[in-house]
Amino acid sequence: MIKINEKLCKGCSICVYFCPVGVLKTSEKLNRKGYFLPTPVREDKCTKCRFCEQICPEFAIHITDE
């Protein structure tokens, strides 16, 4: 399961652009700071490589096994 901390995310979309299997996309949902958040669209395709966690400059994304 992909969890995105809305309070930390700054909408840079690095996770969207660099996901090797295209699991994430930029949504139209804004967080409290006015940033567009990433959202999982193909979560079933996630390989749990955790690359998104590693490249997130704000440490706002986490992969769990739930």
Task: Please describe what this structure looks like.
- This protein is α+β, with helices and mostly antiparallel strands and 66 residues long.
- It has a single domain, classed as Alpha-Beta Plaits.
- It is 15% helix and 27% strand.
- It has helices spanning 14-18, 51-55, and strands at residues 2-4, 24-30, 36-40, 61-63.
- The chain is globular.
- It starts with a strand and ends with a strand.
* Overall average residue pLDDT: 93
Count of helix runs = 2
The rough form would be described as globular
How large a portion of the residues is in β-strands, by DSSP E?
Answer: 25-35%
- Unreliable residue stretches: none
What order do the SSEs take from the amino end to the carboxyl end, as H and E?
EHEEHE
Distance between the termini: 6 Å
By secondary-structure content and strand pairing, the structural class works out as alpha+beta
Provide the helix percentage: 10-25%
> What is the domain total for the residues?
1
Which architecture would the CATH scheme give at its second level? 2-Layer Sandwich
Quantity of strands, as a count:
4
CATH class: Alpha Beta
Q: What's the alpha carbon Rg, rounded to whole Å?
A: 11 Å
Order of strands across the biggest sheet? 1-4
Largest sheet, in brief, is:
2 strands, antiparallel
CATH structural fold name: Alpha-Beta Plaits
Write the layout of secondary structure elements.
Layout: E1 2-4, H1 14-18, E2 24-30, E3 36-40, H2 51-55, E4 61-63
What are the defining features of this structure?
66 residues, alpha+beta, Alpha-Beta Plaits, two-stranded antiparallel ribbon, 2 helices, 4 strands
